[in-house]
Amino acid sequence: DWIQWMRNNHMVFGICFHHRCHPIQAWERLIVFIGSIAFGLTASNFAFIWDRYDGGGMADHLYTFDFNDQQVILTKGVVVLWTLGSICHSVFDLVVWRVTACACCQPGGKCGKISCARSCRDCGSYTLIPVILGMVVVAGYACYLRANNRNDALEQDDDDVYEQIVAGALGEFSFLAKYLVELFLAWFVYFPVFGTIMFSGILGCGGLPILGGRPRDKELVEEELSGSYSKF
After folding, report:
1. By C-alpha distance, which of 43, 83, 80 is closest to 58?
2. Which of 2, 49, 66, 186 is the most buried (most CB within 10 A)?
3. Interval 31-40 mean pLDDT
4. Residue 11: C-alpha distances to residues 95, 136, 169, 183, 184 (Å)
5. What is the tens place of the pLDDT at every residue in 147-181?
């Protein structure tokens, strides 16, 4: 069950490996995927710009290690990006995924048996389209501001490892290498962790909507089947 849930709901794996009968189609998954990238770029870049004009406290050194005979310094900003930033990114992905799914209008949902429920199942996706497009524009603007507000004195320490990895190919946009690490952590570390918690139903004690997880889904299916059998 858990493997199938991840194949259907994961931000990346779900695009290629979701079940053919799953109600969320490939184009809806692509919208959520683009929205996830745009959110991460917007949040991380605006956070940097805000700190840039607030005194640059995120440039404080926290940890130093050697990488290919070169000393690399992890700053407070990088650690915050890879922890709090990735966690917020994963929570955003889960929320947007719930909105896209319109679970209440799907079969087995609270409103699933209403006659107009079938035509409302894509409302979440259509509602998100202008929101995601707006986020993409804002993300592009945030990247532009970040590149034009770069402070080499503040960023040189934690950019060394990224410059070495990308061989300077990104130029003023070398900060995107940091973002790729944040994206990897959000999608392949924190999302599976939070997704497993949601799947288990721990937060909803197996009974609350949305938070009930797999136990609640099984309970709803059993109730529907028992109701069907009682008609015979």
Report:
1. 80
2. 186
3. 91
4. 12, 17, 28, 11, 11
5. 776 655 445 444 445 555 554 555 556 667 778 88
- Which residues are within 8 A (CB) of 16 and not within 5 positions of it... i.e. 6 or more apart? none
Question: Which two three-digit tokens encode residue 159?
Answer: 């950019």
Name the token pair of 8.
């259907």
Q: Is 106 in contact with 112 (CB distance < 8 Å)?
A: yes
Give the pLDDT mean for 26-36: 89
Amino acid at 143: C
Between CA 76 and CA 143 the distance in angstroms is 20
Give me 174's structure tokens: 């070398």
Residue that is written with structure tokens 């918690």 in the block: 197
Angle at the Cα of 140 from the Cα atoms of 51 and 178, rounded to 5 degrees: 55
Closest C-alpha to 23, from 86, 87, 108: 108
Q: What is the dihedral of CA 207, 20, 131, 178, to 10 degrees?
A: 90
Tokens (6 digits) for 43: 């949040």
Contact indicator for 89, 96 with CB cutoff of 8 Å: no
Decide which of 150 and 218 is more confident: 218
Q: Which amino acid is at 39?
A: F
Query: Coil, strand or helix: which one is 74?
Result: strand
Q: What are phi and psi of 70, to 5 degrees?
A: -130, 135
Which residues pair with residue 66 across a beta bridge? Answer: 71
Q: What is the DSSP letter of 59?
A: G
